[in-house]
Each structure stands twice: as C-alpha cells, then as structure tokens.
From TrEMBL:
Key word Magnesium present: yes
The reaction(s) this protein catalyses: adenylyl-molybdopterin + molybdate = Mo-molybdopterin + AMP + H(+)
Residue intervals of the MoaB/Mog domain: 174-316
Protein's job: Catalyzes the insertion of molybdate into adenylated molybdopterin with the concomitant release of AMP.
Protein name, as recorded: Molybdopterin molybdenumtransferase
Entry GO terms, CC: cytosol
GO biological process: Mo-molybdopterin cofactor biosynthetic process
Any one GO molecular-function label of the UniProt entry: molybdopterin molybdotransferase activity
Family designation: Belongs to the MoeA family.
The keyword Repeat is annotated on this UniProt entry: no
Organism: Vreelandella nanhaiensis
Length: 401
C-alpha cells in the first residue's frame, strides 16, 4: 500500500494549472444557477424611499397622543404631498412616507371618527418605517464574483432593474461509461450484464456542480476504440469523466489509453471507497488540454469520487468558492469502526439536536451498495489506521452543492 497517494496530493495534481473559464452574458432567467463572473454594484437604493411597514397612519411623532385630522390617503405607488402640520395620513404597506412624517402607527391601535384619528401617546420616531437604503445603498457591492445565482441573488439583481449579468461559461463535460457488461436501462439484461447506474447519477451530480454534460459515450472493452473515444471526448469537452476501466484487469483499457495519448497525474489513492481513481490530462489539436477524471466503476465509489474531485474541479473552472470544498462540521459518532491504510469516507445520516450534531453510519458501507447514498447527509472522514468508538467526535463533510 506504500504507493497509494493521499487525497490532498491527488487534489493538488487535479487542480494544478486550472484556469477559470471565460465569461458570457446571460439574462436573469438564463443565469439561474450560474456563477457570477464579475462584481455587481448597486445602481439604486433599496428601498428607494422611506415607506410604511404596515397599514396604519403616518404622522410626526411629536403629535402623538391626540386626535389628528386625516389630511391625505397614501397607497403603495401613489405620489405624496408634504404632511400638513398637526395632521396624519392614512397609509398602507409600502406607501411612501410623506415629508413631515417620521413614524407610522398600526391601524389596530387607532380610533377614528371618519375624518380624524386618535393616536396613542407612545409612538417613537421611526416606528414602523422602512428607511431608504435599508437593504441596499446605491454604489454598494451588490454581489461578488463567484456567487452562485440562486433565488435570493436573482431577486437582488431584479430589484436593481438588472436584466443581464456576466456569468462563467459552464464547464463542458463528456461522460464515458466503460465495459461490455454495462447496458442502458430499458435493454433486457443478458447473463453477466448490469444496468448503467453511474451515468444518470453522475450527470445529475455534475449538473448540480454547475457543469454541462455535452456528450455521453459508451466505451467497449477494446484498446483502440478506447483510445479513439478518449480523443474524441477531449476535443469536445473541458473535462472528460469515465467510469470503470482504470483498474489492473486485462479488459481495463482506460488508464493505458490515457498514458498512450495524454498524461497520467495520479493513480491509486489511499481512500475508501475509490482506490483505483485516475487523474490526468488529454491533449487537444489546438495544444490545450482537457482534464481527465477516471472514476471506479462501483457506483458508491463514483458517487463519493464526484463529491471529492469533480465538485472542486468545477469550482476551480467556475472560480466559485462555495464549490471549492465541502463544508465541514464536527459530529458525535453513533457507531464504532476502524481503518487500515486508507482514509475512509463513510456515508452517514446527520441528526441535529439541542446538544449538538450526531452521525449515524449506514450499516453496509460496501462500494456496491448505492442505497446507502440516497439518504446520506455527509461523508464521515476517518483517517488511516484510526479507531472510532461510539461517542467520539468525528469530522464530516456535508453533502451540499
């Protein structure tokens, strides 16, 4: 096991020299889920004027505690007039606070006789007023480059009247499935065959990580065809991902093909699951290179490998800090285990309690048991040659894209 490389060394090799992809303009609808390529500055205040936080009456706080004539009615979107001295204004949520008013009293606290309102005495200045620029001030940095544009960020941009933004181009990924025994769902199984569970799983993971899967390719157990299909994939994609074919079997041709036409940076990692994982580069005709990630064929190894390697690679290509590393948290183990020479990434379910976080490991951690990944919240990281007893504090990587 001395030749096994730690994950940190593998990640360094994978990310060495990676440069962010170019930017492109997109509408807000097209930008959903994309990564912002440049900072955005606020062009207007939010809210753009002082407005009422509720339905009620706007007045000068100094006039509270007496009957005040109602001099105007202000609904959201109405223009306003300066408030006459010694009066109040009927106002509705979102209505602009008129000059001369400095507070709003909610309507439930007010008695009226149709033309006047009896205002309680304990109304402080600024009560129930949403101040101009409370959320955003003109000229402030609204969003920073590297932000993923999810719901709230899109609303923030729309609140500025912005229609287009600069986003990183999605990484183009070619997804290869190797092995004559792998067939697509819907095809009757013959003896010795398996359905391709890796393809839809990895495609969804990659999309969640911000990538665009541009090609899916089935690779037969043949060296010449493996060579040709790797070359084709590299010409079309920024990243080539394969499943299977990177071990030492006579029908495992991917590693040999990679070494024949490209560069093998790392092979055989000190991790479990996922030891036979190949990282490298494939040449293109223009002299550039496509990154290569060869995941093991076992589905759990592919699932875990995608979180540990594909996610940070997409983060580097998109220059997105939230994709660069999985969030880590400490949890109390509700299981016992021990490791050998490889670092173990165990699928666990998290439970958040008043006294802290607990982690329960799924009983069967075999790399072929994909069901353990469905309800997994995190990967518990157990170092090599380590013993964990129930109640020990362990480090977990939270599975969130």
């Amino acid at each position: 096991m001395a030749d096994l490389q730690p994950i940190e060394t593998a990640l360094d090799a994978l990310l060495e020299g990676v440069k962010p992809l170019e930017s492109e303009r997109a509408t807000l609808n097209e930008a959903a889920g994309r990564v912002l390529a440049e900072d955005v500055l606020a062009t207007c205040n939010v809210p753009p004027f002082d407005n009422s936080a509720m339905d009620g009456y706007a007045l000068c706080a100094a006039d509270a505690g007496k009957w005040l004539p109602v001099s105007q009615r202000i609904a959201a979107g109405n223009s306003v007039q300066p408030l006459e001295s010694g009066t109040c204004a009927r106002i509705f949520t979102g209505g602009e606070i008129p000059p001369g008013a400095d507070c709003v009293v909610m309507q439930e606290r007010v008695d009226t006789d149709g033309e006047r309102a009896l205002i309680p005495a304990d109304i402080p200045e600024g009560d129930n007023v949403r101040r101009k620029g409370r959320d955003v001030r003109q000229g402030d940095r609204l969003l920073v480059a590297g932000e993923r544009l999810e719901a709230a960020a899109l609303g923030h941009l729309a609140g500025q009247g912005i229609t287009h933004v600069s986003v990183r181009r999605r990484p183009r990924v070619a997804l290869l499935s190797t092995g004559d025994e792998i067939v697509e769902p819907g095809t009757p199984l013959k003896p010795g065959q398996l359905y391709n569970s890796n393809r839809p799983m990895l495609k969804r993971q990659l999309e969640n990580f911000g990538a665009e899967v541009v090609r899916v390719i089935s690779v037969p157990d043949d060296f010449a065809q493996t060579l040709a299909l790797l070359t084709q994939a590299a010409a079309e994609a920024d990243v080539v991902v394969s499943t299977g074919g990177v071990s030492v079997g006579e029908e495992d041709h991917v590693k040999a093909a990679l070494e024949a036409i490209g560069q093998l940076d790392m092979w055989k990692l000190a991790i479990r699951p996922g030891k036979p994982l190949a990282l490298g580069r494939l040449p293109r005709a223009d002299g550039s290179q496509a990154r290569f990630v060869g995941l093991p064929g076992n589905p759990v190894s592919g699932f875990v490998g995608a979180w540990l390697f594909l996610r940070p690679l997409m983060g580097a290509l998109l220059r997105c800090p939230t994709l660069a590393a999985l969030p880590a948290l400490a949890a109390t183990a509700e299981f016992a285990t021990s490791t050998g020479p490889r670092q173990h990434y165990m699928r666990v379910a998290l439970r958040f309690t008043p006294t802290g976080v607990t982690a329960s490991a799924f009983a069967d951690q075999n790399s072929g048991v994909l069901s353990s990944c469905i309800k997994a919240d995190a990967l518990a990281v157990i170092p090599p040659y380590h013993e964990v007893a129930q109640g020990d504090v362990i480090n977990c990587l939270w599975l969130t894209s």
